[in-house]
Structure to design on (690 residues):
């Protein structure tokens, strides 16, 4: 970016500085650590200069926001034009309780909704299934049918507010509930906006809420791409997620490499089906973690945008929109401490700031109590206020990509991109993404990184305030969320009534039609919609797909 | 008494897929010289107790981050007693609020390790408290 002669001068002067100024001081007073490393174990130098990024061309590698390679942001105006969507992931107990929480959040300035489902829902079981025992509403809201979805969004303007749903294995069915509910309310499906996570690859890799084996799962996902691009054009049919990979213990580089690699895999499967890349790619969205290492996180988001744009171009995308990596960010749940929980507010503020400086389109800030339980009303309000302060008070939204051009940030962005391609080579050698999953490659890489991180904390090589240093022996005194004890009973009674009242012939016929479609190669989405409209439950609809596709089990390795 | 390695079953009850903690603890116990059997995901209480009997373990370590611990941990502890394995040490870990810990102890879960626990603390606890 600077001419060669100037770089040479800088190189010489830096050497002089190092020898005459820096080293003598380090000799007298050694640095705090022998080696400075970020969370991906990359060594960080004391100082970065134009020399470190002399191989980059501003116009080619960095460019302008809204223009290829989109390193500086996907839109020309970024947060000057529009703030990110403030979208708190929420759900617990019954649909009634969660509906109340959504209204509370919207009242306090939240601008988008995000649904957390309980485990039975994530696995496609109804609340009254034996395997649902003990899990009702515990880590999200229980949704067993269209009826529950109606209650979940009652009095919420789903024609105006967008909704993100963290659902993967049974994603087409739960999306079906949402679409059917909108249709029943007279809202056309070409108006509703939102996202289904629908990212099964990271489930096998990290989060482990899978149902079917990889191939039929990928087929269902491509079904949603195809259906969405035709009939639900404002819906993001996937949120390709690094969040869970990171939470499972990966490094930032692994999160980046595995996630964007998964994205490319989905594009290939959809193209294989014969879909036009520019029809579906504009609706692929992403989801990243915001962990503790501030600059590393910012570099990660920037690198992700550039890699994605380049790869989509290579795959034949022509439309600008197809190349845009639009992403949601959530601060790192795994970084929260159960000790001195109030200090998590500070961690979340720093992580949220990194996401904003990295150009996020949407943000969830964690609540201080999440290492203990689901968030209380007060805790979630403070979390929301934290991003409102970043947005309204800090001034960081005034200039686009304000850290762009920092020698350190640009060097790190480029370095992470390079390491991503190295990981991709390794995956390629294993035969691609699915074979790498089946061989346990990702799982082992992540488990290894997680163990190393824990050892570093245990050995005090890495300080976690309140955990291995600055500890306090105090009673934890923050309110813990209490759920309605009658919720489960209410839900089971509702299911019983639904099973009694619905038109038996109609839903059974629709389930049969879905079975036929699943056995063949017809798109399953229209049939899923018929099933949910006739009040087939989540469990019943998923049962049909389980019968046809079978279930996935992973080998237990540690 | 024959000096044999402590045998531990690390188990993931219920539908919860968060296995980071279970895997780290499994490795730490193995590195501390214990025999570790990991059940893998999605185990019912019956499956866990069956494995505990089959593998003749001294310790069952349960990990759960879904919030279903009050049901599923207690199911395992009760079933172990029914099978005459009340001398097996049962410990647990996960996202468990302080208020639930004392109730779990009453039900036979001897210790609960939350986020931020040093792996050595778990190792030491097991060595000191293993009954078989």
């Amino acid at each position: 970016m600077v001419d060669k002669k100037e770089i040479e001068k800088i190189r010489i002067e830096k050497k002089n500085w190092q020898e005459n100024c820096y080293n003598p001081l380090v000799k007298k007073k050694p640095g705090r650590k022998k080696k400075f490393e970020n969370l991906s174990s990359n060594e960080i130098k004391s100082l970065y200069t134009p020399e470190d990024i002399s191989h980059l061309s501003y116009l080619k590698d960095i460019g302008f926001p809204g223009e290829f390679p989109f390193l500086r942001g996907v839109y020309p105006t970024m947060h000057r034009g529009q703030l990110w969507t403030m979208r708190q992931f929420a759900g617990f107990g019954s649909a009634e309780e969660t509906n109340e929480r959504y209204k509370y959040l919207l009242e306090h300035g939240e601008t988008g909704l995000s649904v957390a489902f309980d485990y039975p829902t994530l696995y496609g079981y109804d609340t009254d299934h034996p395997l649902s025992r003990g899990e009702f509403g515990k880590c999200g809201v229980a949704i067993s049918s269209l009826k529950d979805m109606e209650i979940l969004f009652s009095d919420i303007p789903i024609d105006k507010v967008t909704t993100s749903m963290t659902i993967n294995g049974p994603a087409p069915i739960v999306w079906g509930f949402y679409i059917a509910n909108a249709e029943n309310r007279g809202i056309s499906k070409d108006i509703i906006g939102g996202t289904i996570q629908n990212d099964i690859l990271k489930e096998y890799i990290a989060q482990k809420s899978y149902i079917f084996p990889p191939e039929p799962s990928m087929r269902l996902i491509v079904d949603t791409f195809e259906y969405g691009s035709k009939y639900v054009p404002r819906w993001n049919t996937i949120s390709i997620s690094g969040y869970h990979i990171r939470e499972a213990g990966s490094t930032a580089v692994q999160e980046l490499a595995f996630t964007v690699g998964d994205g490319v895999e989905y594009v290939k499967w959809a193209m294989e089906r014969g879909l036009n890349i520019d029809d579906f790619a504009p609706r692929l969205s992403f989801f990243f973690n915001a962990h503790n290492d501030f600059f590393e996180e910012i570099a990660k988001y920037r690198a992700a945008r550039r890699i994605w744009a380049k790869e989509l171009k290579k795959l034949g995308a022509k439309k600008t929109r197809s190349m845009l990596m639009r992403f949601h960010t959530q601060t790192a749940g795994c970084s929260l401490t159960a000790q001195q929980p109030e200090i998590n507010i500070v961690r979340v503020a720093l992580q949220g700031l990194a996401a904003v400086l990295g150009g996020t389109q949407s943000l969830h800030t964690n609540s201080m109590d999440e290492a203990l339980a689901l968030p209380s009303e007060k805790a979630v309000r403070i979390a929301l206020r934290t991003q409102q302060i970043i947005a309204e008070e800090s001034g960081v939204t005034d200039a686009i990509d304000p850290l762009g051009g920092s020698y350190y940030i640009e060097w790190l962005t480029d370095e992470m991109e390079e390491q991503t391609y190295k990981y991709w080579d390794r995956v390629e050698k294993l035969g691609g993404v699915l074979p790498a999953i089946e061989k346990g490659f990702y799982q082992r890489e992540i488990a290894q990184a997680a163990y190393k991180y824990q050892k570093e904390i245990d050995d005090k090589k890495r300080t976690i305030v309140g955990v291995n240093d600055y500890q306090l022996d105090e009673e934890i005194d923050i309110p813990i969320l209490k759920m309605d004890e009658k919720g489960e009973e209410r839900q089971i009674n509702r299911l019983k009534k639904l099973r009694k009242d619905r038109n038996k012939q109609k839903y059974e016929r629709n389930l049969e039609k879905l079975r036929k479609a699943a056995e063949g190669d017809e798109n399953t989405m229209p049939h899923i919609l018929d099933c949910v409209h006739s009040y087939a439950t989540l469990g019943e609809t998923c049962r049909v797909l389980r019968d046809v596709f079978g279930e996935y089990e992973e080998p237990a390795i540690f | 008494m024959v000096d044999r390695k402590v045998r531990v079953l690390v188990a993931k009850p219920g539908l919860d897929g968060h296995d980071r903690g279970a895997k780290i603890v499994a490795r730490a116990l193995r590195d501390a010289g214990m025999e570790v059997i990991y059940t893998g995901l999605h185990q019912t209480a019956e499956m866990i107790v069956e494995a505990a009997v089959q593998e003749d373990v001294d310790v069952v370590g349960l990990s759960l981050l879904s919030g279903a611990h009050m049901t599923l941990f207690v199911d395992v502890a009760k079933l172990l007693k029914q099978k005459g394995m009340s001398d097996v040490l049962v410990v647990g870990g996960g996202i468990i609020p302080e208020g639930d810990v004392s109730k779990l102890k009453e039900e036979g879960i001897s210790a609960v390790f939350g986020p931020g626990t040093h792996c050595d603390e778990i190792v030491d606890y097991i060595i000191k408290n293993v009954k078989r």
